[in-house]
Design a protein that fits this description.
By secondary structure, this protein is mostly helical. Helices cover 74% and strands 1% of the residues. It has a two-stranded antiparallel ribbon with strand order 1-2. A hairpin with a 2-residue loop joins strand 1 and strand 2. Helix 3 runs parallel beside helix 8 and helix 9 runs antiparallel to helix 10.
Length: 299
């Protein structure tokens, strides 16, 4: 950094100075709350008398790790995240490939497909709750009209159907983001590479596997990680759709933390659940990055 003809800071030091505001924001909105949650997780703090925070060590972790409900919730969270994100990426990639080939109507279709991504989570949950209603839902009306079922299906009252409904809504809301992101990546691929593969006689599948997919892998990785984080942390859609029911069939860690903290007033236990939730999210991302890195090396 040069001021008045004199160099005050070197390039490296100046770069560090520029990073200080961003680092301060990260510490303030991410690191500090995380450390405070870790502190609360080893206390028996409750919302009735929040000023008293008696230290109890790892007792909260012992309670949640020996609670079958907790492990059911963890399993639900991983299943919803894995299934919905995988389906979203596959469908999003298929739509992106289709739109990339439709030059004339690409803009119009992209605008239409992106609508679900723009809808707020509360609206998504309320709308699909109405659409999937057992007695008055449009989905059941269509199913009966097509002859798929002779009676109404309890989409939000049956454990299996409610899990399918939650996954379906997450896919519906996630596909537009995946599609738009991957479509941008497809349009950035040099046409010379694809044309050269066509000249060499490569089929569509061979071109996709050998040319398109290796170039798209970094974009797919980023899009997938963002959707994993979004899905694992999403509270609104599941709460407005099923509230974790029936029973704990669709309960996720986001709902479980909320209910433990505010319905049961056990802030210390909720903080312990939140800490484990953070590490599960981190583990999910690390494993995915390891798998992607291995695929890139093999390619």
């Amino acid at each position: 950094m040069i001021v008045g003809g004199r160099q005050i800071l070197g390039d490296r030091a100046f770069g560090i100075v520029l990073l200080i505001p961003a680092f301060a924001i990260i510490v303030g909105i991410i690191l500090f709350p995380l450390l405070d949650a870790a502190r609360l997780s080893i206390t028996s703090t409750n919302l009735i008398n929040i000023r008293k925070q008696p230290y109890i060590g790892l007792r909260n972790y012992q309670q949640i790790f020996t609670d079958p409900t907790y492990w059911q919730v963890v399993g639900n969270t991983f299943f919803i995240t894995g299934a919905s994100v995988a389906a979203s990426v596959l469908i999003g990639m298929a739509l992106a490939l289709a739109l990339n080939a439709m030059v004339t109507v690409r803009g119009l279709l992209r605008a239409l497909f992106i609508v679900p991504w723009l809808v707020p989570g509360v609206v998504i949950g309320v709308t699909w709750n109405w659409l999937l209603s057992t007695e008055t839902g449009v989905v059941n009306y269509i199913i009966r009209a097509l002859g798929i079922a002779s009676e109404n299906l309890p989409w939000l009252a049956d454990a299996t159907l409610s899990m399918a409904a939650v996954n379906g809504v997450f896919v519906w809301s996630s596909v537009p983001f995946i599609m738009v992101t991957l479509l941008g990546g497809l349009q950035a691929i040099p046409t010379e590479l694809v044309e050269a593969a066509i000249v060499d006689g490569a089929t569509f599948g061979q071109r996709f596997r050998r040319v398109v997919l290796p170039l798209m892998l970094p974009i797919i990785t980023i899009a997938t990680i963002l959707r994993v984080i979004y899905t694992m942390q999403n509270f609104v859609i599941v709460y407005m759709l099923t509230q974790g029911g029936p029973g704990f069939a669709t309960e996720t860690l986001a709902l479980y933390v909320y209910e433990t903290a505010f319905n049961s007033a056990r802030l210390g236990k909720a903080s312990a659940i939140g800490v484990t939730w953070f590490f599960y999210s981190l583990l999910f991302v690390v494993i995915y990055l390891k798998l992607v890195d291995r695929e890139e090396r093999q390619a």
